[in-house]
User: Fold these one by one.
Assistant:
Number 1:
Amino acid sequence: MKLFVLLPVLFALIVDALPPPDTLSTNALFYNTTWDGIIFGDFTAQANTQRFNGSLAIQGNFTASGLTVNNRHRTINCTGSIEYGLSVGGQIQAQNTVVNGAVNVSNLTSGITFTDQKCSNHTTSKHVDFNQLYAAATDLSYYLASQRPNVVIRDGGFLSDGQFDADSNQEFYIFTFNKCQKKGMCVIPDYLYSSPEHIFFGTNWTGPWNTGYPIDKRIIFNIPILTNSTFTMSTNNPAAGLEQADIVYNLYPVNSTGAYDPQGHFVWFRNTTSFIGSHVLAPKASIIENNKGGFTGQLIAAKYLSIDTVYLDDSHAV
Ligand SMILES: *[C@@H]1O[C@H](CO)[C@@H](O)[C@H](O)[C@H]1NC(C)=O
Ligand SMILES: *[C@@H]1O[C@H](CO)[C@@H](O)[C@H](O)[C@H]1NC(C)=O
Ligand SMILES: *[C@@H]1O[C@H](CO)[C@@H](O)[C@H](O)[C@H]1NC(C)=O
Ligand SMILES: *[C@@H]1O[C@H](CO)[C@@H](O)[C@H](O)[C@H]1NC(C)=O
Ligand SMILES: *[C@@H]1O[C@H](CO)[C@@H](O)[C@H](O)[C@H]1NC(C)=O
Ligand SMILES: *[C@@H]1O[C@H](CO)[C@@H](O)[C@H](O)[C@H]1NC(C)=O
Ligand SMILES: *[C@@H]1O[C@H](CO)[C@@H](O)[C@H](O)[C@H]1NC(C)=O
Ligand SMILES: *[C@@H]1O[C@H](CO)[C@@H](O)[C@H](O)[C@H]1NC(C)=O
Ligand SMILES: *[C@@H]1O[C@H](CO)[C@@H](O)[C@H](O)[C@H]1NC(C)=O
Ligand SMILES: *[C@@H]1O[C@H](CO)[C@@H](O)[C@H](O)[C@H]1NC(C)=O
Ligand SMILES: *[C@@H]1O[C@H](CO)[C@@H](O)[C@H](O)[C@H]1NC(C)=O
């Protein structure tokens, strides 16, 4: 891809010499897993918010009302090899909740029914190693966060090359959004940051206006979020123009100079009206979903809440 040549500013490479935790094409988190959703804390689906349709591994408590877990896989068959729909490490508080597939929960006295009753015979046999998954997710997130951006969305939604000389052999297209708080002192040069203005905070974003996205390689959307802040993604369809693409949305906490903050945490309010597909890697994020659209691919997060109203107040804080 050769879109636009930038000012020939030279600077030292900032990319850490980190070994990849696993190559992304074979990464067990994304491509070799039973679970569409992995949540390291509590999962809460308020009444009548069917926003996530995949299988779920929840390390914390599971609270749901009127939810079908693993709705994506309606023809689960527990006669032959067992297929799992839900695993919960904490307590369950469920009403009118249906699970497609077998479950691994400590306490099944609750309001869960099975589409295939044969699945109820397999209630405590699939161990999920949440600590191992968390380590893998944070390692991968940190690794991707340390990669140098090579494509940039400019103010106004203009797509351009991120690098002056294209001798990069990076295996992904990498965008890094949200210039850090202390502009001019950020861990990467300001001009390599993509503008979130139209794609995440706009209204009717339809993709970059000058050209389509390059989609012949996997796309990494690095989205650093200041620790303890709330990132409200409010564009109707941030994924416009990316329908055919394989994307990793990597959301991670940073400090005011944009450096990855291993202790950090933040809230991501998905207030879009359309779907976000592919892979969402946000092991430090408390995700809040409005009641439109949703995540249609894989979702890795610290905490999950789907709300039946767009009203959001401080009670949902970190
Ligand atoms: C994928 O799963 C298979 C079977 O459980 C396992 O043998 C293999 O090592 C896994 N691959 C990765 C990349 O984790
Ligand atoms: C899970 O629920 C139990 C019982 O209601 C409660 O004591 C515990 O604090 C909850 N855990 C979390 C992480 O919210
Ligand atoms: C379920 O799996 C068993 C064993 O593999 C098979 O005999 C049966 O036909 C399957 N049932 C359905 C409805 O697919
Ligand atoms: C099982 O769930 C019931 C109802 O929610 C609760 O009263 C009970 O304490 C739970 N038992 C255990 C061992 O967690
Ligand atoms: C559970 O397994 C037992 C023994 O294999 C079988 O008799 C029973 O019908 C099964 N129950 C369901 C709901 O499939
Ligand atoms: C799942 O099953 C295994 C084996 O029975 C058990 O050790 C584990 O605690 C269960 N729960 C989870 C959430 O993995
Ligand atoms: C966005 O699109 C909707 C539906 O097409 C339209 O009603 C609305 O006016 C548009 N908003 C802006 C700011 O263009
Ligand atoms: C973030 O909030 C937590 C809890 O209030 C606090 O302990 C921590 O110091 C805060 N971190 C930063 C970087 O502000
Ligand atoms: C941000 O974190 C980096 C790496 O830990 C550190 O070097 C830098 O001083 C921090 N910046 C601020 C403003 O705290
Ligand atoms: C979320 O979106 C709704 C509908 O567009 C809007 O009314 C509301 O103000 C938004 N909430 C936030 C916190 O941006
Ligand atoms: C979940 O499934 C329902 C019913 O098929 C569908 O209407 C909804 O769009 C799906 N949502 C997501 C986020 O996939």
Note: Confidence is low (pLDDT under 50) at residues 1-16.
Number 2:
Amino acid sequence: MREGKRDPAIAVFLAAVFVAWAMLPIDGADGQEPVMQLSNGFTATHSADAPGRFEPVLFAPNGVFAFGFLRVGSASLDLAVVHLPSSFPLWRATPDRVADWSRPATLSFDRRLVLTVPEVGELWTTLNVVGDTVALLNSSDLVIRLFNGRGTPWRSFENPSDTLVLGQNFTMSSPPLISKNRRFSLRFAKTYMALHMEFYGGRTRPMYWQYTAREAQPENATQPPVYGRLDSRGFFGLYLLGGDQSVDMLAFDTFVRNLTGAFRRMTLDDDGNLRAYYWTEGSKAWTSDYKAITGPCELPTSCGAYGLCVPGGAPKCQCLINSTASISPPCRAEDSTDLCAGGGGQLFDVVRRNWVSLAYKEQLPFETYKTAAECEQSCAASCSCWGAVYNGGSGYCYLLDFPVETVVYEADDRKVGYFKVRKAQQQSAAGRGMPPGVTAAVVVASLVLASLAVAGAFIGWGRWQRQRRAGGVGMEQELTPGHYRDLKSMDSPNNSFKT
Ligand SMILES: *[C@@H]1O[C@H](CO)[C@@H](O)[C@H](O)[C@H]1NC(C)=O
Ligand SMILES: *[C@@H]1O[C@H](CO)[C@@H](O)[C@H](O)[C@H]1NC(C)=O
Ligand SMILES: *[C@@H]1O[C@H](CO)[C@@H](O)[C@H](O)[C@H]1NC(C)=O
Ligand SMILES: *[C@@H]1O[C@H](CO)[C@@H](O)[C@H](O)[C@H]1NC(C)=O
Ligand SMILES: *[C@@H]1O[C@H](CO)[C@@H](O)[C@H](O)[C@H]1NC(C)=O
């Protein structure tokens, strides 16, 4: 895992696990070739005590990708297509109901792919699809095919999770890219692509970044919609659907360098930024060569809920409200329900701040008022409104119909903000905190699971080495559960600002 210091007890424990595993017979070591195709009737059961984080069941012919059971976070199970050299999951099934790693789960193929957990039932399936075989292509596309080249009724490329790879078409009718923490999405409209925050289970999704294809003509009704595709030459190309007519491209930093042979991905990260990364042979880590949003304060939740981001050489987080949290950020737990439920009685306190603005105000609807008081009043009167930001210069009043996230400091007297803060009883009723005993137990359990994960990583890697020449199934690098990205990490060289 990422921790620099290792606990000697854990090290000893790991060594013991490793030795124990090394003495077990390894499947595939008897000269069996890796599985390249699944046929009807296939089943594989994940073993609940498997130490690795990834159990492959199907390999791409180039040996770079595999499909199998993936352990997510400390205890969840998912199906994933993994880029083996980096251990990065390029695609995940992401069932609505999360499966538990500690229970046996079965993956079967019987005209459709199904993930089943005994006594729980089907957790995930390729609905309404009938096919004959399953294969993983050299591109990392997981496909269900019909015999005799009669078609491909299902492919993972048409059902993305948080990542796009080379050659994968992303269109208006594709399901959106959703970040791992499920708080952000990327969607295409007819002539533009946009990033959205997801609130209330997707009922409200304010846009915070938009990119319109330069040569698309929004007023031309007969022009087909735009779609996007990552190109190995180092750009994200925008084309008109039904052909390859280019209408724009987002060039990455490596575009001018003529970098050939790199594997590329574009991922909607948990901080809400859309980044492109590449991996070359012998790489130790993914290198980012593009990000949609360059300034840390322009990310919609850079300082968490009720945070105030102060831009500058080293951007800083403050709180809009008096924070009870000992660490800052976040200033306050995220709110997940609106303020319309309460019936009688005011459910919120009010905070007013001047010198504040919103990084994405251009994407928000606004009303025009002569005074800040009128703007405030418009928000106060509506229970779906969480706050309003007023620009005394233009008279624009931006209304937030979603829980308050990070606002940005702007040294301008005329920019004022009005924010509702759910009253404390309401907040604690939402039940975010855990009693200290539970917290300690969780910490201990996480440590044990984390050490198992590292052990599994070594084991999986050794296993893969034995089966193939290259690659590893070491899961430590990219599979750490989503953590809060503070401003320091946004500042790190891996995410360095474009100049
Ligand atoms: C996939 O990659 C392997 C190894 O690089 C190669 O032999 C095979 O021809 C490729 N398959 C396709 C369909 O390109
Ligand atoms: C509208 O788009 C279609 C298809 O791209 C094109 O053939 C046509 O010339 C366009 N019309 C105008 C007025 O630009
Ligand atoms: C993506 O779209 C292009 C152009 O329409 C097409 O040639 C290509 O086969 C598509 N790729 C995939 C993986 O579907
Ligand atoms: C880029 O690579 C191509 C093919 O490998 C080569 O023909 C071209 O000259 C290269 N361009 C530059 C600027 O290096
Ligand atoms: C924040 O704290 C200050 C001083 O401790 C107090 O005057 C103010 O009313 C507090 N504001 C809120 C919203 O609780």
Note: The first helix runs from residue 8 to 22.
